[in-house]
Amino acid sequence: MKVQVLSLREVYARFPEAEHARAYLEARRWPGGTICPSCNSGERITPRAGGYYRCGACVEDFTVRTGTVFERSHVPLNKWLYAMYFLVTARKGISSLQLSKEIGITQKSAWFLLQRLREACGADLEQLQGIVEVDEAYIGGKEKSKHEFKKRNAGRGSVGKTAVLGMRERGGRTIAKVIPATDAATIGNAVYKHVKVGSRLNTDEASAYVHLGGIFFDHKAVNHRDGEYVRKGVHTNGIESVWAVLKRGLHGVYHHASPKHLNRYVQEFTFRLNQGNVSRSTMDRLDSFVGGTIGKRLTYKDLIREEPKDPA
User: Fold this and answer.
1) Does the model's pTM come out above 0.85?
2) What's the CA gap between 61 and 24, in Å, rounded?
């Protein structure tokens, strides 16, 4: 069966005004009828002007934006859908500057909008199973290329970079997340949380993975240091292809992602691999995106809040 892929022009035609987008979002969020986000009651709901509803049970006013990443946003809902379309169809992402030009908002608003959408991309997937490839990547600039005041002067390689752990089900889903360290305990906890016991783990020769074998997992490793990359079906090529797309997107489209916001960018890329896969129709991908916006909230104050400085 041919996958239905909508062009940008078709998306604009389907949602030309904010009211069309509101009707679509309400149908996705409340397929059985309008429900109050405050008390979860579907009775005594009275429509009001401007897309508002009043709940007779708790006497609260609400809209389809309430309790979602759209809440308190002044950007029209059809422009939110256009942004979601760009995010699920652009393999390596879209910059806030480019998005601002495409949908007609300021670059600052586009940046905030994209960060809120990335917050919606984060989802607790079911545990991976079968053959699962596990690998880590380091994101950040080279020490020699940094300004003097940003250098740590503590060595090369991964120094000054942020570690991201990735787990990819062979032929299936991907889970990736920023981790504070790459020691055996940190990696082990992440693997036990996201991979079903009894699965086969494919990793490289790093010492942090050695303890994963035994009664819980069937652990196989390839030794990259000796030039071994594939051995009788044992390899980490799948998860390494994820790193290739992630790094190309960060370098070529976003240019830089601070450690503070990096996890949201990682969520965006894994969402495209999972729910935003090109093997699904465009509307199915948008439907999944809309489902992820519910129950998520990211305010500008929280987004720009200063983090404690690294003692190092």
Assistant:
1) yes
2) 20
